[in-house]
Amino acid sequence: MKLNIIQSCLLLVLGFMVASCEYDNFEEPKSTLTGRIVYEGEPLGVRNQGVQLELWQHGYDLFQKIPVYVSQDGTFSAKLFDGDYKLTLIRGNGPWMDQTDSLDIALNGSQEINVEVNPYFTLDEPSYEIVNDTIVRASFTVNQINAASTLEFTDVYMGRTSLTDIVRNEGLGRFFDGQVTPGTPATVDVTVPNHLRGRSDLFVRVGVKTLGVEELLYSQVDNVSIN
Question: Which segment of the chain is annotated as a signal peptide (predicted)?
Fold first, then answer.
């Protein structure tokens, strides 16, 4: 009886060792899919990893989605096996209109793609000026792309790192209708918080909130010198 138990244990351990070796020998994906979220060929700024794309691979009866998170500059990257994929946008996840069309991708090695979307609003790239080391003066224009959309507010965000948005910031100024009007150049002043003063630089960006849409559209992050 004891011998049978020992033999069973040895077989169990051997099975684990074989499975472990097979796992260790599992080949990792070597191809890279990179891309940008764009409007008329220009990348759109978003909240870092706040927007997600989905990749689905053809040819499998059972498969799960491959989530691909978008960086704040509108770029994304994924390590994949060669094959045929379908890339889709998640409804309601992004500062652009929903679209049901998917993008077919035949991946063989590294590949770069652009994913064209239709945003509710866009931003002309802002310019910034530091006034008396205490005020960020931002100049920009919000452009209305979808006539049915309503601009809820426009923010100017500040921080000590380049990861700056509505969730992660160390200071902001918020401006509503009448202060920022789509199609009209705007210049706004935002007071630099005390804990950010005395620095040599700040990271600054503008965010535009569409009424009824969770994610904002952002300008690219700028590193602004103070002194």
Answer: 1-19
121-225 — its CATH code?
Answer: 2.60.40.2060
Q: Angle at CA 142, nearest 5°, toward 215 and 221?
A: 60
DSSP helix, strand, coil percent of the chain (3-state; round to 5): 10, 45, 45
What pTM was estimated for this model as a whole? 0.85
Spatial separation of the C-alpha atoms in residues 135 and 192, rounded to whole Å: 5
DSSP 3-state assignment of 23?
helix
Contact predicate 158/138, CB 8 Å: no
CB 182 within 8 A of CB 121: yes
Average pLDDT rounded to a whole number, residues 160-172: 97
CATH topology of domain 31-118: Immunoglobulin-like (2.60.40)
What is the tens place of the pLDDT at every residue in 197-222? 989 999 999 999 999 999 999 999 99
Domain positions in the chain: 31-118, 121-225
